[in-house]
């Protein structure tokens, strides 16, 4: 992996191990979240395949993102 690709990594803690999500994969998950903040199992599996993550990691990412949005709206 080249140095330029490392600079495009976004770090997330998902169940303790450090998960690397490339910026272009993160942006696709973000776009999907804006359209559908609560994906069903099939959509989660599809996103997991595209992002090369486990479906559980995608599910937790969506849970965390929804919580962040709620906190922002409360404040």
UniProtKB/TrEMBL annotation:
PROSITE patterns: HOMEOBOX_1, HOMEOBOX_2. The keyword Cell inner membrane does not apply. Its main location: nucleus. The chain crosses the membrane at residues 6-26. SUPFAM superfamilies: Homeodomain-like (SSF46689). Keywords: DNA-binding, Homeobox, Membrane, Nucleus, Transmembrane, Transmembrane helix. One of its GO terms (cellular component) is nucleus. GO terms for molecular function: DNA binding; DNA-binding transcription factor activity, RNA polymerase II-specific. Residues 31-73 bind DNA. It is found in: Nucleus. Pfam families: Homeodomain. InterPro entries: HD (IPR001356), HD-Zip_IV (IPR042160), Homeobox_CS (IPR017970), Homeodomain-like_sf (IPR009057). Residues 29-72 form the Homeobox domain. This is Homeobox domain-containing protein.
